[in-house]
Amino acid sequence: MGATTLLFTMVVQLLLLLLSISAHEAAHAWVADRCGDGTARLLGRVSLNPLRHLDPFGSVLLPLLLAGLPWVSAALQVPVFGWGRPPLVLVKNLRRPYWNALAVSAAGPAVNLALASLATVGVGFAAAALGADARKAALAVLLYQVDDGTARLGGFPVMFTLVRLATINAFLAAFNLLPLPPLDGGQIALQTLPADWAARLAGLRPYGLIIGMALAMLWVVPVLVIPFHLVLLLVINYS
Questions:
Q1: Are 42 and 123 in contact (CB under 8 A)?
Q2: How many domains does the chain have?
């Protein structure tokens, strides 16, 4: 991969990830505010400004590593991913603590799924408008086979941006729904499991992000995202 292509892919993926993480965390804060707890809003977390949501490792170091070493992402078949700093939510302030807390936890992954769906629709329209070269570029991006030849195909910048927006957000949704606290899926599980199971699961909280990252790197999360990739593949081929 040439230096120009590498720089383009790095910058675009990092910007898309920061946007996606910001939308995820802002959604948590916005739903909490709508449900009666304005703590996160007062702390400025209902915002798409990435600086309000940055986690030093999850939003900066890990994404930089994955974006700067594209062969790592290609070998693992994972997009650039990470996480943000969760907003402060006081459950006692929510109008219906049980149901509202579930809604707050689900809001982040729901926004990522919405962004992935919108990007997939965009891929379809762009592929239909830009033609065969754009389809080839989109397929190469989806299969992590970007090189200088791919970068010269017509429509490559648009297709790279849309396909990566789709895959990053689908991956973030699956990653965050893993039943591991402090991830959103873990918070949902803690609320819905029987008390004794929830107590055991809560003991994983200090290690949840480490375990989740290992599952992301060891093909558990990529396998979960395969159905979405198949849909995206069909959109690319038949637009």
A1: no
A2: 1
